[in-house]
User: Fold this.
Amino acid sequence: MAAVSAAREILRRLHEVMAAKSGAEAKLNQVVQIVAQQLTSEVASIYLLRDGMLELYATKGLAQEAVHVTRLSMGQGLVGTIAATREVLNLAEAKAHPDFAHRPETGEDDYHSFAGVPIVRREMAIGVLGVQHREPRDYDDVEIEALQTVAMVLSELIHGAGLVDDAQVAQARAASSGPLRLAGMKLVDGLGRGTAVFHQPRVIIEHTVADDTEVERQRVYSAFAKMREQIDSMMGQAEFSAGGDHHEVLDTYKMFAYDEGWSRRINEAIDTGLTAEAAIERVQARTRARMRSIDDPYLRERLTDLDDLSNRLLRIVSGQLGSAAKSGLRGDTILIARNLGPAELLEYDKRFLRGVVLEEGSLTAHVIIVARAMGVPVLGRVAELFAQVSDGDELIVDAANGALLVRPAAGMIASYETMRVLKARQAEKYAEVKDLPAISRDGRRVTVMMNAGLADDAQAVDMTGADGIGLFRTEFQFLVSATLPRRERQQALYRTVLEAAGSRPVVFRTVDIGGDKAVPYLQGDGEAEENPAMGWRALRLALGRPGLMKVQARALLEGAAGRTLNVMFPMVSEPWEFSEAKALVESQRVLLARQGHALPEVVRYGAMIEVPAIIETLDTLLPMTDFVSVGTNDLTQFLFAADRANPRLADRYDWLSPAILRALRRIVRAAAAANVPATICGEMGGRPLEALALLALGVETLSITPAGVGPIKAMVRSADLGALSEQMAVWLDTPGLTVRPALLAAATAQGVDLG
Ligand code: PEP
Ligand code: MG
Assistant:
């Protein structure tokens, strides 16, 4: 309790200083007096960041002539070391430390012990507060904590007085924490440069000293209650249902949220006179310090969870809620997140989004498909992302090389520029082939369509030179809406897309909601699902909610009035589902005709092949359909029983494994025999080597990501498909693990352009 009252006394006096009318320098002088007195130290000094150097700004005990004269760079001397590492130094014998730098003008020769703490703003040291004693001694925890508390208040004072501004902070950060390269996994190809923005921004604490401790106590109390409520309700939600990784994290969250020790420590900090925000952060700083000193990965992980939870508590108490999308992006941005949902990503303004970096993430998760549609490069599975990157850091995402360059040095930026120019040149090369047909060297015509889902994408048909839109994911409109989109809005979108496509065909896939594409307004439809990807999604949900499906059917029929309407149903598992869905659309066509509405000239019905069971019943299904399209993202996840959204499985199975290629061959052969056109619309078709394999299996139409159209056309035009088809037949009939090496060798020998 003595410690609490000492801390309270310091804060009380700092409060008076802050409230006084005096200038900033005078205030800093008062602060060093208070610190020296309260800690009975002979010296107390404040160093501030000025023009990238740490300048002695106020001191009690050192020579006054040294003020504004003694300057240390980041990393230089004890003070520079504290600022660079943002860690406390507590030394009985300062001179014995390897980083000690002698500064005779300060007259510090007589002092032995030294303790210093960083003054931090926006996760960057903007100064250092230090004390010194003549006698060699270690400082105890209470003293260090008192210094840290004063440093928090100083940060507010210094920023408030304009002594250090945020631009200086950013500059110093770039200068101090050197360049770094973090490895990750390419999820969406591309190259982007911009400033780091955290999807969940860190709270900036503006007030540290409380006016009324009781009020602060109440604020923390209700924030805790709210946080516990949030966690309890998250645990009840479908996507966090028992068993998954998320659930484990939530369990830990829950444990901490109800942990008496944590709330008690925050309350003690409030007792000393801090505001709720400052108290939470004070305790959080302690957790972080512990985090750094722990080697056990399990414990570190738990402390990271606690850190996460502290941030949540801070957001609640400060009212700084909402993701970075809410406050809007301002310049070229690289978005940083642990993971993202597709709807969350769609909230960002894509004009400013230059890249996304995730700590988790996997190749065929829907958020990645959305990112691809937005043309934003994504790097996933970057370990240590949050430890190494700070808000505002300059970043380069080089997805092709699986690299994130943090605070790149001039040389790295130059090579980025070179790569960018090369890419632009490559894009020009693709631009040359874009309006040429994809005809192989041996004369086979391949249809290259593109996938779309946003109204803007439709405009890309012309730009990319695609032969049409082979998959329009209608659920994207549902994902970006807060409520169920009304029929008029759906219809308007479909018409816009058809108009943009002109004479080229468009295939509308009816809503594929559920799985990792949950929309809040359609929840409560069923219970929490353990396996949402295999659950109440897509056609199952649509047939279970005929009202929703009828509205969409009418919107599609009206939107395509006077044209051909291609409708495709997702996740058809048994033929009856297809016929029921078709009958439902037909019933709306009859109804609209009766009401005298204009209707499409032709309606063609297609089924997506993405559930393995349907492959066994193609003989029943195919005669009912006008076309089929293979969704390899889902089909491969189900063939391999490997969750497409699970990062650990992201690169476990090869798309060029015989299991997949043989299954695809069966589909292609059955469709050809039944005279039903078969398309591939999964991500697989957008990768040159995989696409080549598909064409060698006899596929004639691909629908792929827009950015893939140029490269895939170039690939087709450089290939001799007949020869490869013959080889493919041999490879698939020979036992083996994957045809990748053989196909790559054959393609290289032919000189196929693989990008
Ligand atoms: C697929 O599953 O391959 C597909 C194209 O559909 P989606 O990715 O939207 O599930
Ligand atoms: Mg699918």
